[in-house]
Amino acid sequence: MNAVLIGLGMVADLHADAVAATGGDVRLAAVYSRNSERACAFAGRHGGPRVLDSLDDIAADPTLDFAILATPPDARAPYISMLARHGLPVLTEKPLARTLEEARALVETCEVANLPLGVLLQHRMRPASLVLQTRLAQGDLGEIATVELRVPWWRDQSYYDAPGRGSYARDGGGVLITQAIHSLDLMVQFCGQVADVQAITATSPLHQMEAEDFAAAALRFRSGAVGSVMASVTHYPGGAEEIILNGTAGSARLAASRLIIHRHGHPPEEIGTLSATGGGADPMAFSHDWHRAVIADFADALRNRRQPAITARSALPVQALIAAIERSARTGQRQEVADG
What we know:
The protein is 33% helix and 24% strand.
């Protein structure tokens, strides 16, 4: 299948490498950037895909099967709406949109057009995450009672010196929607939607930025479980994100790509190994394997006329949770989490 990559910023090389790693199932056929010089240089590094000069060229190209959208968040809604009008499926970087309302509108636009829209929440595709999802479905931990999520990441000030980064206008927020969204999404996939939150957020003296670089929240899940969240880019030099689930039949600790399960009456099990996650000063210090898995699945879904593994609609619950955490921090009051 032929893909066009739209947006050639920080994450674009990883996308190109991920496409190349699909073994020919997906081909990077074209690229587009508003900066034509950057587009030509990028194409030269990645096997010479065609450089398209305009969005009209994308819309008019019958050889393209889908678009990979890697623009900043503030540019995604116009691109997705345009591509939906022209019937080109889209696999977009996270977050789907800057706000829950904007995300819902994009989902509805593509569903009305009967057009597949996927989101690169690639932590779902880590082997250890898939194993934990299966074990939870089998009931191996029993009923989940308490949950703990920690994202002790680090970003240098130079990261936020890029124009618009860490702002509401461009990114939709700070650590919650840009970094912690992956772990928050996994937590919701594992434990179901959150009912209400009580939260604080802050911009620490460690960064000059508009949005938050630290967030903490107490959660009550719709299942009755309770939990806590700490998300930060203030933890130098940065560590692995971690989700701990405590159930009536055992517990699980998922630290990046390593899973440890303790079941009552059974020896501990360890699945996977701890690997780089992009949680330090270099945000791109992680494998492209998980992106490859999402891209390959999206192409296979188009080929076989099925839903992709990570649909845009399935990304709405985490955006609803982030919106509620931000609301609670602003008001100082507990907030209900809207339906995703």
